[in-house]
Amino acid sequence: MPAFTTEELTGLREQFPVLSRTVRADRPLVYLDSGATSQQPQRVLDAEREYTTHSRSAVHRGAHQLSEEATDAFEHARQVVARFIGAPRVEEVVFTKNATEALNLVAYAFSNAGAAGAMDGADPAVAERFALGPGDRIVVTEAEHHANLVPWQELARRTGAELRWLPVTPEGRVDTTELATIVDESTKVLAFTHVSNVTGAVTDVPALVARAREVGALTVLDAAQSVPHLPVDVESLGVDFLAFTGHKTLGPSGIGVLWGRYELLAAMPPFITGGSMIELVRMEGSTYAAPPARFEAGVPMTSQAVGLGAALELLEELGMERVAAHDRELVQHALDGLAQRPWVTVIGPASTGDGAVAERVGCVSFTVDGVHPHDVGQVLDDSGVAVRTGHHCAWPLHRALRVPATTRASFSVYTTREEVDAFLEALDRVPGIFGLDVEGSA
């Protein structure tokens, strides 16, 4: 599948108002921090504005026209999400605040399942899968963002379950060498990232899912860095839960998604309780609505959901196969350019891969000999190039790779080869500013 033509990319960029602004002494903005937060196209801004100015009302609650319009807009967004990720049922899509909340929702379901009566009415076989305590195991990977690590650490602490993890290889891939040993018959949960937000490495999802199924463990996939860059189909992936966020996917902040298999969601106790998620309330106790309402307590983030729907519709129109091809071209171009600079060390796989399956997507993280990543970031910012510096909420991964921090350039559908070239040109200022022996480092 070909990437975008120059004309297509020019037209696409015109849909993103912020890309026309200047920064730092009137320099053109080169935005290479989309892995943290992507920019929003005009159609997303318009969708939110249209809802807010014409149909803002209480979703699922009112008996008037505005409420009906608001409910229709909210539920249309859910339908778009379900279609975009290949969900078998639209009811399997739960709106959350962000991917972090989505992952916490699943983690708390396990600890809440241990409360008396919490699993009443659930299929006993399904309820048993959520029973977690001493002697059980939770497995994550060393490549995780803190959002898919800390919730499981806390779950292990609350329940007495053992926390184990799959290590990473020297180039930052999830190491599956000891998969059969670490993910054993005591494992109840296997939570892992689809794409590392540091190395860009794509996890071998089929291998992890296959092993989890062998031992009956539930799989939780952090897809925050894959959904914006790759075709994602939950049925093909075979996972039990998947989380992603709107603000990395051309959408608004304050909106995330949890997808889960319906039979699992239907058995899970709620994470947050209150209005809208109830079936029947008496003073003596309450019963809860079916998914997804069970997990959407309170007034929902309607305008943000509408904006996310508009963002995903744009990505559908572009075609995720073409988005992936464009991304792969940008990442490889950046890797090729950095390889010509021996004073730079790239973190992660050395290429995007030769086969049909991408080995890395989305971003390139690196270090510069003898220069702190924050200083590198300031030099780039002075040239109008916006990147991320630090540990990227992945401290354990950085420790495993023996680097305290990195500089990360991350891309989106609107990023161009020319912007990658501008980034490389700005990076070439670093040796002169910090007195690096460029010839000696070759």
UniProtKB/TrEMBL annotation:
The keyword Ribonucleoprotein does not apply. Keywords: Lyase, Pyridoxal phosphate, Transferase. InterPro entries: Aminotrans_V_dom, Aminotrans_V_PyrdxlP_BS, Cys_dSase_SufS, PyrdxlP-dep_Trfase, PyrdxlP-dep_Trfase_major, PyrdxlP-dep_Trfase_small. Its EC number is 2.8.1.7. It catalyses: (sulfur carrier)-H + L-cysteine = (sulfur carrier)-SH + L-alanine. Transmembrane segments: none annotated. Residues 30-423 form the Aminotransferase class V domain. Its cofactor is pyridoxal 5'-phosphate. One of its GO terms (biological process) is cysteine metabolic process. GO terms for molecular function: cysteine desulfurase activity; lyase activity; pyridoxal phosphate binding. PROSITE patterns: AA_TRANSFER_CLASS_5 (PS00595). Catalyzes the removal of elemental sulfur and selenium atoms from L-cysteine, L-cystine, L-selenocysteine, and L-selenocystine to produce L-alanine. Belongs to the class-V pyridoxal-phosphate-dependent aminotransferase family. Csd subfamily. This is Cysteine desulfurase.
